[in-house]
Amino acid sequence: MPVELDIIILGIIDAVSVWNILLVAAGVTLGILVGAIPGLNGPMAIAIAVPATFYLEPIGAIGFLVGIMKGATVGGAVPAILMNTPGTPDAMITTLDGHPLALKGKSGKALKMAHLSSVTGDTFSDIVLFVAAAPLSILAMMMGPVEQAAIIFFSICVMAGLIGDNPLRGLVAASFGFVLASVGQAPEEATPRLTFGFPELEDGIPLVAVGMGVLVLGQIAYAIAERQVSTRGRMVPPSIGADAQLSFGEYMAVKKTMFRSAVIGTLIGAVPGIGTALAATIGYSAAKRASKTPEKFGKGTIEGVAATEAANSAVSGANLIPLLTLGVPGNVAAAFLLGALIIHGIIPGPTLIRDEGQLVFSIFTCMAIANLCNLIIGRVGLNLFGLVAKISAIYIFPTVILLCMAGAWISSGGPVGLILLGIFGAFGYLLRAMNFSVVIFIIAFVLGRIWEFPLTQAMILTRSDPIRLLNYPVAVGFILAGLGLVVFLFFFTHFENNKVGKT
């Protein structure tokens, strides 16, 4: 499936219009601002922004959302360094060396290192995505519906096993998502299903209501209930003089660390559900082991900041690899990108590059533009974003709630959207309070309708007879690998918990 050169060129031309560049730049700016405020994060901003993309062209809509995703990763490092409070979960490890540097009067140097290493890691993963997408799509197209259904099952098992502290809870959360995704008209019979007599649900439950309710309102309610939001932020004063500057030599001195972390982040991002926090942790640990002065880690070293930010930012591009080639989102942000594509009539999967090659390369171009915007906007606005970081999320929550209500009204055509928003807001709070994974739930909800088609075909081909699966060894391999991972992690977690309890 070679992509013709004229398709690539046309895709690039479509993306580089002034309007699309402005949309990407706006998304990056918004993402950095959201990431810089503790208590908010990129997926929350994307969930709120999805309704605003309804009336945009697909390229501009996806470019805007991609900009938010990339910008939020950069912005999360600002409060982590200045306030010892990560703006996003993936910036948690950044606090280990970023804040000690700030306390030494080198906050400017730490911010610049975080910014440049983040852009470096992100760019590396994007290059891998550009190169690997087409070949992986060819491999995916060689698989039939049985194998495709098995791959999605395997992805859910991976996420259930690696997200949270209990694989069974992860599977339960995924089951909730799949059940709610089945609400609406059955694709085979075109008859209402699980609508309970409500005609408003015949088209299914809107992604916007579920996403904003569970991810945004649920998080706000949980943060307030658990008193996780402070009303005042304490920020280290910005550094001046030489301590505020980062020389080219200092940047190049950690190039090996950034490359190592970028590779780690890319590999982790390509596996659905693992996430940026793990990438940052592994990248930091690998840098510490490889360093000639490991004793400096945790006490304020530029190398530690570079390792963390390059790793967590490298996930941004890599998590689109399973999305564009298999139709499986790698994380919550990718799940909302998948939802946005579906809203615009585009179904990601093995045939996406073949059928929508021009659009795919437009998206690739928007990602490159977003990296450039990250570099420029982040460099110019570091001091401003530092001031934004001091704003507590408690003052932002009312505005966020109003935006969610407006988005739910627009997406669902009236009061039904508000009702669903409130229901899923309460549901999101309960998921968190009962320690169920919100991430798995949302991804499973988005995947539900996509998985149903190959699963139905697989059942027809095998006549619902498990023995006939033996004719599909690749599918059997994925199913057994998924089940084996869940069982192993369940017993491992159970053993570790018992060990800790005895201790």
Structure characterization notes:
This protein is globular. The chain has one domain (5-502). The protein starts with a helix and ends with a helix. It has helices at 5-15, 18-35, 42-49, 58-75, 77-82, 94-103, 107-141, 145-162, 167-181, 207-225, 248-253, 255-269, 276-290, 302-318, 320-326, 332-343, 352-355, 357-380, 382-389, 397-412, 415-433, 438-462, 473-502, and strands at residues 184-185, 192-193. The chain has 503 residues and is mostly helical. Strands 1-2 form a two-stranded antiparallel sheet. The protein is built from 23 helices and 2 strands. The longest helix has 35 residues, at 107-141.
Task: Indicate the topology.
Layout: H1 5-15, H2 18-35, H3 42-49, H4 58-75, H5 77-82, H6 94-103, H7 107-141, H8 145-162, H9 167-181, E1 184-185, E2 192-193, H10 207-225, H11 248-253, H12 255-269, H13 276-290, H14 302-318, H15 320-326, H16 332-343, H17 352-355, H18 357-380, H19 382-389, H20 397-412, H21 415-433, H22 438-462, H23 473-502
Antiparallel strand pairs: 1-2
